[in-house]
Design brief:
The protein is of the alpha/beta class and about 230 residues long. The protein has helices spanning about 15-25, 35-40, 55-70, 85-95, 110-120, 130-140, 140-145, 165-205, and strands at about 5-10, 30, 75-80, 100-110, 155-160, 215-220, 225-230. The chain has a single domain, classed as P-loop containing nucleotide triphosphate hydrolases (Rossmann fold, 3-Layer(aba) Sandwich).
């Protein structure tokens, strides 16, 4: 079943590492980093400090994800923090509204772990953006930790400070598999309901003497009412 695996969580929670592990196991998948959309926008408009505040960023993130998933990958892996509730709801509902199946994963970690990982990140001499990104992440650590308790129903919450990347990937793929089975069951039920509805509609037309009733469907009147009958051999 086509799916978008959205990996949410704070800076330093291990989103990129998990995305890489999932891609290693699912080589036909595509890893999509919405940060590139923000950097693209900043080429044309004045940088505002956080591109997530830009309505254009949120709209383009959804449109790009949908296009990539539909044209280039059965599985799209998206490692991106969505800490602000309104932005997360806007993007995830935007994907669902156009029929995309989204598995939302949130990686939890203690504040001390996040700070330690951010401090350990390698910065490159002369690249002020690396240091700026680290400092920006540091200012949001407490907010990122608190966000774990506000995730919507259906979110897969995982402790990235207690599980290895391999164990995290196991949990994500297990949930994705279970959702596929559930999705297949729902589709089968819907198909069965549609067939029953078509049969019932044809019977009602036949009862009314409508010539447009499907071939093979007739009606008979018993002592207690009407019942459908499908003629055999047709």
């Amino acid at each position: 079943m086509p799916v978008i695996i959205w990996i949410n969580g704070g800076f330093g929670a291990g989103k990129t590492t998990l995305a890489e592990e999932l891609h290693r196991r699912l080589p036909a998948s595509v890893v999509y980093d919405p940060e590139d959309v923000g950097l693209m926008l900043w080429k044309w408009i004045l940088p505002n400090g956080d591109f997530q505040h830009l309505p254009s960023w949120r709209e383009l993130v959804v449109a790009t994800a949908v296009s990539l998933r539909r044209h280039h990958a059965e599985t799209l892996i998206v490692p991106m923090s969505l800490i602000r509730d309104a932005y997360r709801a806007e993007i995830l509902s935007g994907l669902a509204d156009v029929g995309e199946e989204v598995l939302h994963v949130f990686l939890e970690a203690d504040a001390g772990v996040l700070r330690g990982r951010l401090n350990a990140r390698v910065t490159h001499p002369g690249r002020d953006c690396d240091e700026a990104a680290r400092e920006f992440g540091m200012t949001l650590v407490e907010e990122m930790v608190a966000a774990a308790a506000r995730q919507p129903d259906g979110t897969l919450l995982l402790r990235s400070d207690r599980l290895t990347p391999g164990e995290l990937a196991d949990e994500v793929l297990a949930r994705a598999d279970s959702r596929q089975v559930h999705g297949d069951t729902l589709r089968m039920r819907r198909a069965g309901n549609a067939s029953l509805l078509a049969l019932s509609s044809g019977w009602l037309l036949a009862c009314a003497g409508d010539s447009s009733a499907p071939a093979g469907v007739s009606a008979w009147s018993g002592g207690r009412g009407l019942a459908p009958r499908v003629r055999r051999g047709l």
